[in-house]
Amino acid sequence: MSDYKALIEAVIKGDIKTAVAETQSVLDAGSNARDILDKGLIAGMDEVGERFSKGQMFVPQMLRSAKTMKECMKLLEPFFQEGDITSKGKVLIGTVKGDLHDIGKNLVSMMMEGAGFTITDLGVDVSPESFVQKAKEVEPDIVAMSALLSTTMPSMPRTIEALQRAGIRDKVKVMIGGAPVTEKYAQEIKADSYASDAGSAVSKAKNLLGVS
Amino acid sequence: MKPMEPPTFQPRLKVLNRDQALAIHTAALEILEKTGFRMEHPGALEMLADAGGKVSNGDWVKLPAHLVDEALKSAPKQIDLYDQKGNKTMPLVNGNTFYGTGSDAIFTLDLETGQRRRTVLKDTANFARLVDGLENMSFAMSMSNPEDVPVEDIYVYVFAEMVRNINKPIVFIADSGRDIVKIYEIACLVAGSEEALQEKPFILNYSEAISPLRFPENVMEKLIFCAEKRIPICLPSGSNAGGGAPVTLAGAMALGIAENLVGLVVHQLAGKGAPFLFGSNVSVLDMKSTVISYGCPEWSLSQAALADMRDEIYGLPIWAFAGASDAKVMDAQAGAEAMFSIITAMLSRANLIHDVGFLEYGSTSSLEMVTMANELVAMSQFFTGGIPVNEETLALEVIERVVSGGPGSMFLMDDHTFEHFMQAQFLPKLLDRSRYDSWEEAGAMDLYKRCNTEAKRILSEHQVAPKPDRVLKEIDLILRSR
Ligand code: B1M
Question: Strand ranges (DSSP E) for B331-376?
Fold first, then answer.
């Protein structure tokens, strides 16, 4: 069993070069990819999440750590078989129809990706029909909607209805967020979850799917 | 003979030198020429192509610099806004500064309970009436995004509610070319006719392009409508440093200005000589909370820089923000951040300054905060007035008189004091300078409580001259029409 201290440290620092070299060297030393992923990369990212939530790290540093992990994953991927679970779950995300705010949505996607989810991003101004069509295609575990305008919030229940009509409402979890959205609203429109920021979006998504 | 009086220097903030201003402007032009932008409105796309823009991939446009120069030449250097009775109250030109509230707050701090709650239409009315009654607030925006009106006509409802409750100019939001027509109809009713509105506009539309470099159809609909009807408009984007734009202020400004110049070019092509308020919104994305800050020094700095660029290059009046905060309640942070932006906006001579009274990075509005800001504006006006130096103010005779006046002689007793103290001193109304005992006797109120009391007093006592019944009835008809 290898020591992943240097790898973990490089992930936390967002030092891509060192992290990639470390990944290669532990692979060469005979560690298995699953072990490197779980005890090296993910352990590093967990520490990053921890430090961020304590206010000890800033967003660009956290995103750099996520990028570092992604680069290291490229070396590990060939060792995983088709069907091996390397993803925490599939998320289909978009900003709802009529709404063009995308910074919050992008941040949520990036954080989720960093935490190990597989993301399909539909962009902004996404109609209920587009959500449904893409959901049929990629079969996500979570449909995630962002709205920053009270005028576009009604598109959220409309999308939920459209998922219902298409017969896939109970195959997915629906998660919503954005400045005017509240927990109460999520209950009213029968969404499965609400998150107030990108960090909590990750933990709520994990809760929804029962992964850690 | 009287000695010559030197002109009074009015303190002025400058944050860019000419070379820096030109470098940012050149970068903006380069963005337009080399990177280009996405124009999603077919009519605007055609206008740009006809004028010499290079179109590729359907809606991607690259814009030669000479189109910008032409638009800058044809746009008026002065925009006059009138109150709803036809008096010119806001000549947006040179160093004139005017403060007013902001638009779509989702929440407000309830005046009675102090609790943060969702905004309703009654709040729109209260904010408008308060602004009408505050001497240093020059225009109103809605300060609310009410939950108790039909959501598809929300901007028509808040506009009508403002018209009912204020006679000062109104800066309004619309969603698209659909609701802006209804808002325009209401404005024409108030002004008396289309011509009267055009001659003495009391409205200005605030629309936004999407950073980076995207111009949606509904936004362009509003821009072209305003150009054709000669309704003043401004079209900043959200090129916030680290969010919609590079994290470094120079790059964020270059992007924001490039976006604004696209708006200006389309606007002048659609209505040559129509009034366009220049501006960008360059705040920052906070790297811990990820909110776009409404209390940061960067936004104030970037708009001071824009004011310098106006003076060096553009010559058009500019849009700005001030008097807002990221604090959740009206506390010391709110006061500090509000004052910082208010005084710097005035010192750099930004022209139309909105968002006064916002808390929680623009999510919550507060009547108390607007009331406080009214006094902070007064304080800043006093400071920017400078120090008049002349025989009267040097007061050498007075000094001579008092000093030679014998025991008991003092400045406080002199007629010179009586004659000048009102102008020579800033006389606060809400900022407390009372002695401890009297402060305690008066209820030991902090500034928040005093502003609360004052806001309540204005709302109960201030009379807003009502609009004629006929106008009010027709507004109701417009609201009911679908
Ligand atoms: C699926 O699960 C989840 C879970 C969590 C989720 C989630 C999904 N989605 C978000 N989250 C959460 O996690 C994110 C990261 O922590 C967070 O995302 P946020 O988006 O909150 O945070 C981002 C990282 C940073 N924040 C932002 O990017 C938003 C900041 C503010 C200032 C803002 C910006 C920047 C913009 N805007 Co707009 N804008 C405002 C905003 C004011 C505010 N106080 O928030 C708001 C949202 N805008 C508003 C308005 C009115 C408008 N805007 C408009 C335009 C723009 C810009 C283009 C200029 C720009 C967006 C650029 C872009 N590319 O996105 C217009 C509409 C355009 C349109 N059709 O969409 C326009 C109508 C203005 C106009 N006059 O045209 C107001 C909305 C009021 C309302 N309730 O309806 C507003 C609150 C400002 C205000 N006080 O007036 C959380 O909310």
Answer: 352-354, 358-359, 364-365
Rounded distance between C-alpha atoms, residue B304 and residue B313, angstroms: 14
Tokens of A45: 């990212």
Half-sphere exposure of B176 (CA within 13 A, CB side): 10
Provide the 10 A C-beta neighbour count for residue A65: 28
Q: What share of chain B is helix, strand, coil (3-state, %, to 5)?
A: 50, 10, 40
Domain endpoint, select from A79, A100, A116: A79
Quickly list DSSP for B365-401: E-HHHHHHHHHHHHHHHHHHT----SHHHH-HHHHHH
B353 - beta bridge partners? B99, B320
Do B328 and B403 share a structural domain?
no
Nearest residue, CB atoms, B290 vs list A59, A150, A153: A59
CA distance B304 to B287: 23
**Ligand 1: which of A91, A101, A183, A194 to mutate, most ligand atoms within 8 Å of CB?**
A101
Whether A71 and A133 map to the same domain: the answer is no
User: Where among A79, A99, A134 does a domain terminate?
Assistant: A79
Domain containing B195 equals 75-245+273-385+470-480
Domain total of chain A: 2
Running along chain B, 482 residues long, what does each successive block of 10 average in pLDDT? 80 96 98 97 97 96 97 98 97 96 97 97 98 98 96 95 98 94 97 96 97 94 97 96 96 98 98 97 95 98 98 97 98 98 98 98 98 98 96 96 91 96 96 96 97 98 96 95 77
Residues B339 and B411 in one domain: no
Instruction: Please name the member of B151, B244, B289 whose beta carbon is closest to the beta carbon of A150.
Output: B151
User: Which residue, among B40, B41, B106, would best test binding to A if mutated, counting the most A CBs under 10 Å from its CB?
Assistant: B106
Q: Where does ligand 1 bind, in terms of residues with CB under 6 Å?
A: A 98-105, 107-108, 144-146, 148-151, 175-180, 195, 197-198, 201; B 103-106, 145, 173, 206-208, 210-211, 237-238, 240, 243-244, 285, 290-292, 361-363
The CA B102 to ligand 1 mean position distance, Å, reads 15
Q: Which among B149, B288, B360, B364 is the top mutation candidate for probing chain A, defined by the most A β-carbons within 10 Å of its own β-carbon? A: B288
A190 and A96 in one domain? yes
Determine the distance separating the centroid of ligand 1 and the alpha carbon of A99, expressed in angstroms. Answer: 9
Q: Give the residue numbers spanning the domain of A54.
A: 5-79
A85 located within any domain: no
Segment B421-433, tens digit of pLDDT: 999 999 999 999 9
* Cα of A88 vs its chain's centroid, Å: 8
Burial per residue of B433-459, b for 16 or more beta-carbon CB atoms within 10 angstroms, e otherwise: eeeeeeeeeeeeeebbebbbebbbebb
**ipTM of the complex in this document:** 0.90
> Minimal Cα–Cα distance from A78 to chain B, Å?
35
> Cα(A148) to centroid of ligand 1, in Å?
5
Q: Fill in the amino acid letter for B86.
A: G
CB contact (8 A) between residue B154 and residue A151: yes
Q: Structure pTM?
A: 0.94
Are residues B411 and B370 part of one domain? no
